[in-house]
Amino acid sequence: GGHPVAGENLQARLRGLIVMAHANAHGAMAIATGNKSELGQGYCTLYGDMAGGYAPLGDLYKMEVYALARLFNERMGVEAVTESTLTKPPSAELAPDQKDEDSLPPYPILDEILRLHIEDGLDATQITAKGHDEKTVKEVLTRLAKNEHKRWQMPPAPRVSKRAFGQGWRQPLAARHDWRQ
After folding, report:
1. Whether 34 and 70 share a structural domain
2. Whole-structure pTM value
3. Are residues 59 and 122 in the same domain?
4. What does the buried/exposed string (b/e) look like for 140-174 if buried means 16 or more CB atoms within 10 Å of the residue's CB?
5. 128 partner at 20 to 30 Å CA-CA among 1, 26, 38, 122?
6. CA-CA distances (angstroms) from residue 118 to 47, 112, 168?
7. 89 and 18 in one domain?
8. How many domains does the chain have?
9. What's the CA angle centered on 112, arms 159 and 175, to 5 degrees?
10. Is 89 found in the same domain as 6?
11. Residues 82 and 122 occupy one common structural domain
């Protein structure tokens, strides 16, 4: 019984526990794997994929992560990140046939909306005026506000953008909606 996300979160937390135990056993540090798109939408699990001492991708949008992986492969002259990983539909892999786009807008659209709001400081009306669907924009900004509590608990990430989550970002913690819209 209960909400299916509870089972998915349990799976992610068990995976995080195993990763932390493995890192501990080898004197290493677990890293959190979330990127700015996922963290911005709360599409991550506290004490699951967010577990770790460092979040190396935390200030890169999802499409930037793919671009970085392709650049890495090109510069290294090897397929360190397989092409199948780069071309298959993104998924949290916590349920059969699950795809990120079942819950989120396509990443190129999501990344652009988040970038316009976070980096450029545009509100929902201004983002919509740039050609984005009003309903999608409001959903993205609402999820951004509703999931601030997760970002307060994320490990540190290197800052590579004009405005990163973390010290310079702090927003109201208990936001149920973005009252500024």
Report:
1. yes
2. 0.87
3. no
4. bbbbbbbbbebbeebbebeeeeeebbbeeeeeeee
5. 38
6. 25, 10, 11
7. yes
8. 2
9. 75
10. yes
11. no
What secondary structure letter does DSSP report for 42? T
Output the six-digit token pair for 121: 């400081």
Q: What confidence tens digit (pLDDT) does each residue in 61-103 have? A: 999 999 999 999 999 999 999 999 999 988 877 778 888 888 8
Residue of 41, 36, 32, 26 lying closest to 12 (CA atoms)? 32
pLDDT for the residue 154 = 93
Residues 24 and 55 in one domain: yes
What's the pLDDT tens digit per position in 9-41? 999 999 999 999 999 999 999 999 999 999 999
Answer yes or no: are the C-beta atoms of 44 and 150 closer than 8 Å: yes
> In whole angstroms, what is the distance from residue 65 CA to residue 91 CA?
14
